[in-house]
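Lab intake sheet, docking and co-folding queue.

SAMPLE TYPE: protein with bound small molecule
LIGAND NAME: magnesium ion
LIGAND FORMAT: SMILES
REQUESTED OUTPUT: full 3D complex as structure tokens
PRIORITY: normal
SUBMITTED BY: R.K., bench team

The fields below were copied directly from the construct record.
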Amino acid sequence: MITAVSLNPSIDKALTIERFRYGSMNRVMSTRRDAGGKAINVSVVAATLGAETRCAGFLCRENGRIIENRLMAHGVQSEFVWLEGSVRTNLKVLDAEQGVVTEFNEPGVRVNAQDLAEMTELVCRLAEDSDFLVLTGSLPPGCPVDYYAQLIRAVEGIDVKCALDAEGEALRRGIEARPCLIKPNRMELEMAVGRPLADRAGVIGAAKELARRGIDFVAVSLGAEGAILTDGERTLSSPGLHVPVRSTVGAGDSMMAGMIYGLMAEKPLEEVLRRGMACAAASVMAEGTRLTERSTYKSLLDDVMIEEV
Ligand SMILES: Nc1ncnc2c1ncn2[C@@H]1O[C@H](COP(=O)(O)OP(=O)(O)OP(=O)(O)O)[C@@H](O)[C@H]1O
Ligand SMILES: [Mg+2]
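RESULT FIELD (auto-filled):
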């Protein structure tokens, strides 16, 4: 069982207008609304691959159904700590004439110490029958920056592995608690090690450094340039698949889901990276907010090139 923790879900609303006029009335041509959030993405993709998956997190009474419905549609179980108010909206306004997107992201509903205590209790309870706990996405207002680290430490005595995909200080503090897997992109890795990384060799060095700090698997995603994965002893590099790029939304989340799917099956390092790469590429090939299709994922597995570095 994979349990993904969603602390700050969002409803992504996309508006298309002919031409964006700042300070004027803009007529909307079309609207789309999707349940978003990185943990939601990981659960949906992991379920698509065939893993037993659940999502735990904070949800708001007013409009939380939209999130619940998306999870249900993909066969993901869910359990929430319910909050008053409404799930934040992330608004994307597409100017059709210019092809430019303007984004407005809300911070989310504030949580208090009682909410966080309930969340920790829920996560510890669900960890009992989970193989993997996935901690990913932004933290809501009121949530301490080391909360992911707190959760990793809270489940230390339980037979569950933690995967962390966060940025900035949340990642840095989380690393100190030694999760099993992390997947920073280049920028997140630079922040984690505190220096710029000029080339692939620099990225590999930094990934190995984090592995030495007690993280079992360090994956670094490099967008169109693929990814690397190290377990501290062996380091693998994949150039990334040449696929038609339709939308990179959730590519990193799909990669996480693919790798965890490999780790759950106790596959060798090559196979873990292969699954991550095929899953990410399949996600990139899907339109808009749609993520990995299982058939696309399967058809890409044999195309993934991996070399030991
Ligand atoms: N343009 C692309 N072409 C091919 N593959 C891509 C492309 N962009 C991303 N990918 C695949 O998806 C993986 C993850 O992408 P990326 O490194 O952009 O993650 P990320 O920065 O964590 O993204 P996010 O957190 O926004 O989902 C890459 O390692 C690669 O395999
Ligand atoms: Mg990411």
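REVIEWER NOTE: The chain has one domain: 2-7+37-87+108-308.
SIGN-OFF: pending second check by T.M.
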